Amino acid sequence: MKKFYNILLSIALVALAVVGVQAQSVTFYQPLGSNLTIDTVANTGTTYVSTTSRLKNDGHYTNTVIQVNVTKISGTVGGTISLQGSVDGTNWKALNTAETQTALATVTATDATNSYHWRLNGSPFQFYRVSWTGTGTMSASFGAVLYRSK
Q1: At CB < 8 A and 24+ separation, what contacts does 24-30 make?
Q2: Is 102 among the domain residues?
Q3: How confident is the model at residue 17 (pLDDT cuts 50, 70, 90)?
Q4: pLDDT tens for residues 91-112?
Q5: What CATH number has the domain bearing residue 130?
Q6: CA 117 – CA 106 distance, rounded (Å)
Q7: By residue range, what is the domain housing residue 78?
Q8: Residue 2: inside a domain, yes or no?
Q9: What pTM did the predictor assign?
Q10: 26, exposed or middle or buried, with CB in 10 Å at 0-12, 13-18, 19+?
Q11: Are 130 and 68 in contact (CB under 8 A)?
Q12: Nearest 5°: phi and psi at 10?
C-alpha cells in the first residue's frame, strides 16, 4: 500500500511540474485586426485609423502590440505616425511606449511600403488610434492590427 501511495504522489508531482512549465512558457495573443479601420493619407493632411468599438476587458493583459501597415500609392511618402489612446473614445492622449516611457510613440514614415509597431505595458486604454500627418506630395494607405497578450 505504501508503494501505491508513493507512485501516486510521484505522478501528481510530475503532473504539477508539467502544468507549471506550460503556464510559464505559453503566451496567448488576442488578434483584433478586424477591429481597426483602414484609410488613406494624402499630401500634408492628417488621417486616423482607430478601434471602432470598446476593447473587451476580460482580464489582465501583460502587453499590447499595435502594428501599422503602410502601402505607398504615389509621390514621396513621409510624415509622422503616432499612437494615441482613449478611455471614452472621444478624448485622445498621445502614448508612450514600453521602450520609450519619456518620449511619445511616434515614427517617421519612409518613402516605401513599410510596417511599424509599438509595444505597451499592459492594455491601459479601451480605445486606440493611429494618427498620420503626411508631408509634401504623397498618397499612401495604412491600416493597423492590435494584439494583446495575457
Answers
A1: 27/62, 27/149, 27/150, 28/149, 28/150, 29/147, 29/148, 29/149, 30/147, 30/148, 30/149, 30/150
A2: yes
A3: very low
A4: 998 888 777 666 677 889 988 8
A5: 2.60.120
A6: 10
A7: 28-149
A8: no
A9: 0.72
A10: exposed
A11: yes
A12: -60, -45
